[in-house]
Amino acid sequence: MYKIDLPSEEVPKKWYNINPDLPVEMPMPQNSENESQLENLPKVFSQGVLDQEFSMDRYIKIPKEVREIYMRIGRPTPLYRAKGLEEKLSTPAKIYYKREDTSPTGSHKLNSAIAQAYYAKKEGVELLTTETGAGQWGTALSLACSMMDMDCRIYMVRVSYDQKPFRKSIMEIYDGEVHASPSKSTEYGRKILEKDPDTPGSLGIAISEAMEDALKDEKTKYSLGSVLNHVMLHQTVIGQELKKQLEIAEEEPDVFIGCVGGGSNFAGSAYPLIKDKLDGKSDCQFIGVEPSSCPTLTKGEYKYDFGDTNGFTPLLKMFTLGHDFIAPSVHAGGLRYHGMSPQISLLVNEGIIEPRSASQKEIFESGTLFAKSEGVVPAPETNHALKVAIDEAKKCKETGEEKTIVVNFSGHGLLDLKGYAGYLENNLE
């Protein structure tokens, strides 16, 4: 089988919550000294997602309205076999990729954007404010808010704002209001610009700006595209579909690979498979791949830190490079984050997930090879997963092992061509 589709009715009816199945208890968020960030959470987030954030229910029902929109935007997404890539590599391995790039906005991000906009709308929220790195999350939330007849304000990390101007155009088509971050629209943005007018910005700064808006207006809530438990939860529609598709293909995954920045696409596709491993039903290897220029899991510390730069968020137990970290201006903007999902951090710390890193030049090399083999141009973020998938397939060629390698193809790269041009012209940093 080269392509495995599921009918619309197979869209999952519940999200999977990994919290009750974690091998050790999840460390809870904390206030910093003399501050009360936890008390601000209801001011910032809708109650619907806050309830999910701390839930210990293994499965949480997907509202009918959300599930219907999932079907409208093309869920379930297809699973493809990368036969062309296998032949290019002359490997005995079988490589499958779950195509989240087929969504209207080109990535997996809509799965959570729709849910978060739905819960906010139910509570009478008029404006959702957020951050975005490469623009996939800002694009998804803009569309979700448009569907729910709400306003959306996006703080886009300055370097990505400059690198990817057509991302801004798409957000504006969906009526999103886009600001380069740090901006002059917030107190915190102005403070950062006073210190360093030429800063490339960071996701931590953009989060601070978006949260400042939410704290100032009771009709405004903040929406996060990754990191927190409820975002991981919403994305598990991917992994639940994937399990059914692998069963149809009569495949047991030996290696699962996804890119990791804040963790949402990896968690959503891997958690239902990880449950099988935690239950003793699978021996699959799970690999999360990050940029070597932003090595949160491979070189960061597992400790409590803020999710944003200004300290609006509670302290989260996670792998972190420090909340003041400013990543180099690589093209994988969705992976330039100082921290990591607390759930994924715990699973890495417990040895369930293996972290790896890859450089910018080698990920574009892998993405170009994939495009020539399969015809699909991957996002720079997705290229990190593909790079390691290619490495693993080459190992199989050396050993003769017929492993089944599964990749979450988190997004397309058709709005990331400046990065590809830099690779083809041999002028990437």
TrEMBL record:
- What are the UniProt keywords, alphabetically? Amino-acid biosynthesis, Aromatic amino acid biosynthesis, Lyase, Pyridoxal phosphate, Tryptophan biosynthesis
The Tryptophan synthase beta chain-like PALP domain, residue ranges: 74-411
Sorted alphabetically, the Gene Ontology cellular component annotations on this record are: cytoplasm
Q: Which reaction does it catalyse?
A: (1S,2R)-1-C-(indol-3-yl)glycerol 3-phosphate + L-serine = D-glyceraldehyde 3-phosphate + L-tryptophan + H2O
Q: In which pathway does it act?
A: Amino-acid biosynthesis; L-tryptophan biosynthesis; L-tryptophan from chorismate: step 5/5
Which Pfam family, just one, is annotated for this protein? PALP
Q: Which residues carry this modification: N6-(pyridoxal phosphate)lysine?
A: K109
Supply the EC number(s).
4.2.1.20
Q: Which cofactor does it need?
A: pyridoxal 5'-phosphate
| GO-annotated molecular function | L-serine hydro-lyase (adding indole, L-tryptophan-forming) activity; pyridoxal phosphate binding; tryptophan synthase activity
Which residue windows are coiled coil?
Answer: none
Instruction: List the CDD domains hit by this protein, alphabetically.
Output: Trp-synth_B
- InterPro entries hit by this protein: Trp_synth_b-like (IPR006316), Trp_synth_beta (IPR006654), Trp_synth_beta/beta-like (IPR023026), TrpB-like_PALP (IPR001926), TrpB-like_PALP_sf (IPR036052)
Entry keyword Lyase:
yes
Q: Which family does it belong to?
A: Belongs to the TrpB family.
Q: What does this protein do?
A: The beta subunit is responsible for the synthesis of L-tryptophan from indole and L-serine.
User: What PANTHER family does the record point to?
Assistant: TRYPTOPHAN SYNTHASE, TRYPTOPHAN SYNTHASE-RELATED
According to the record's subunit comment, the protein's assembly and interactions are: Tetramer of two alpha and two beta chains.
Q: What is this protein's name?
A: Tryptophan synthase beta chain
| Source lineage | Archaea, Methanobacteriati, Methanobacteriota, Methanomada group, Methanobacteria
**Gene (UniProt):** trpB_1
